[in-house]
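Name: Regulator of protease activity HflC (Stomatin/prohibitin superfamily)
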Amino acid sequence: MKEKKAWKINGYLGILLIVCLLGLGVFMGMKGYILVAMFLFVIGALLITGIATVQPNQAYVLTFFGKYVGSIRESGLFLTVPLSIRKKVSLRVRNFNSKTLKVNDVEGNPIEIAAVVVFKVIDSAKAVFDVDHYEDFVEIQSETALRHVATKYPYDNIDELGMTLRGNAEEISNEITKELQDRLNVAGVDVVEARLTHLAYSTEIASAMLQRQQASAIVSARQKIVDGAVGMAQMAIEQLEKNGTIDLDEERKVAMINNLMVAIISDRGAQPVVNTGSLY
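Structure predicted for Regulator of protease activity HflC (Stomatin/prohibitin superfamily):
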């Protein structure tokens, strides 16, 4: 069902019309026209039921004997369809904080994940008639979309290849927003934004995964140190040969490279050994 505008007129004009009808009814009753007076009183009483006050960023969904007759989105005082049942719907932007969900990522590792969803109603008729309790619908669909996206990617990737939940938070949030929007179109809800608020390994594997991350960081750091040490040793030999300071054979080059590598890569400070004899 699609939203449409309900019939309405200015509420102050409607109140003036009601007062005129009631006053005319009193006048006709005093003149002895009882049936006409009763008719005017009934019409005035019916119109009173059509008076509605709409607050800013609210909508009234009107049904008349089970039939949807339209919605009022403008704020103010109005006279609308008499005897209609009015359902108030908020059009304000609202937040929904999901519960911390425990799911398995694509590699089967249990993780904890939560998100905040910013949404607003853009079609009051769909929100009221196409789903039961659209607030609950938003909550359930948000958690469903969050679970689905979380199972498509790994929490982290040692090789730093592909998209991960931890390393690509912006892309993951955009995907959650898109998937959630597809799910909530039926309820007339627009998803403004969806952002992760919590992401961590579950407690039962958090310690093991922390050790893995530490080991990965150590290996990566060692690799950079070795690459730097090789470059420095190569630069030292090339500089010596270029300046003609000393002529080293292959054996002495290997010894020099070994000493430089040990000095640079060692966890502790290297102890210098002074050679007071012949180089060879």
